[in-house]
Amino acid sequence: MASSRLGLRLAVCLLNISEARQQDIVERIAKAALCNKAGQKQTQTSVLNIFSDYDYNRSVLTLAAPVETLGDSVVTACTEAYNLIDMEHHDGIHPCLGSVDLVPIYPLSESVSLEECGKVACDIAETLSHDVPGCSIFRFGYADQPLKRNLIQRRKEVNWYKSSNLNVNEIKPDVGAVISPRYGLTGIGASPYVLNCNVTIDTQDLTIGQQIASAIRGANVGGLCGVQAMAFPHEGTVEIACNVESFTDEPSSSLTTERKEYISYFIQGKEYLYFSPRYIERQIKKLATIHGVTTVGTALVGFTPERCKSLAERAIQEGCGEFWKKHKTITM
């Protein structure tokens, strides 16, 4: 991704909050991102997209801005979310630990470094711990210095994948207080862009979904590099929810020998690759066919990194902070 044609050094936050069933609350949080703590309008911030899922009771807000000011917008959005979402009353099928569950910072412009995004993430964590007494935070990726533990590792360490059995007394946050029942635990960090792609299969058999998710998971033999996958019951079907991470070295798996299946972009001159969502969809369709079921839809939660940068430039150039109103849900 080349530098912004507007001369801006852009970054983005895909803010994950534990609310989707009360859209007025979700929109209040989105609108909060458009002002700083003093209530002044952030003219170069745009909320590009809001993706909400009722069954998950989870929304992802795509907040884009110059890297120098993105942290201010994220802090105001998170503060509003902490005020409005009470984890003691949360209900949803997607794992989560916090009212603000995940705050990942990604570079969009090639000139923005991962280290810089890590610093932004650390500053967000420290500011929130001061502004919202009682919130608790774990750091990951380039915000987790010097270890740089990735999100999967940190989530395993805090028992995110088994959040229904969470014992808050066993977890020591990196920043903030002992975990409160209201706020829960928030993950804040920085990494290369992570794409979210959900593929629905036409069955109610969760076991089939779990087998497909296991087969494409990058950590498993024959899986797709950088792909994390989980299966959930969803609106009378099963959804394969995929996090698609970027990687720097071409994998050697027999499934990944064709360069054309990767999409590439650059961060400070270094090439990063990720699997095309359409290729992931085709692989899931093949696996579903083996089980005698079909795919019935694919949703992209937000955008590819290239599309995100392009829309961020457009939104900021137009001065359109509420850009999401033009793009409700993005599907392929």
The percentage of residues in β strands lies in 25-35%
The overall average pLDDT, rounded, is: 92
Secondary-structure-derived class: alpha+beta
- What is the share of helical residues? 25-40%
CATH topology of the largest domain: Formiminotransferase-cyclodeaminase, Chain B, domain 1
Q: What is the alpha-carbon Rg in Å?
A: 19 Å
> Quick one: CATH superfamily of the largest domain?
Formiminotransferase, N-terminal subdomain
CATH architecture of the largest domain: 2-Layer Sandwich
The CATH class of the largest domain is Alpha Beta
Strand order of the largest sheet: 2-3-1-4-7-5-6
Q: Return the string of H and E elements.
A: EHEEHEHEHEEEHEEEEHEHE
How many helices? The count is 7
Shape: globular
Main beta sheet: strand number and arrangement?
7 strands, mixed
Give the count of structural domains. 2
Poorly predicted runs of 5 or more residues: none
Number of E-type strands: 14
N- and C-termini, Cα separation: 21 Å
Report on the architecture of this protein.
This protein has 332 residues and is of the alpha+beta class. The chain has a seven-stranded mixed sheet, sandwiched between helices. Strands 9-10-8-13-14 form a five-stranded antiparallel sheet. Helix 5 crosses helix 6. The two termini are 21 Å apart. The mean pLDDT is 92.
SSE inventory with pairings:
Layout: E1 10-17, H1 23-32, E2 46-53, E3 58-66, H2 67-84, E4 100-107, H3 114-131, E5 136-141, H4 151-157, E6 175-176, E7 185-190, E8 194-201, H5 206-216, E9 227-234, E10 237-245, E11 262-267, E12 270-275, H6 277-290, E13 295-300, H7 305-318, E14 330-331
Helix pairs in contact: 1-2, 2-3, 5-6
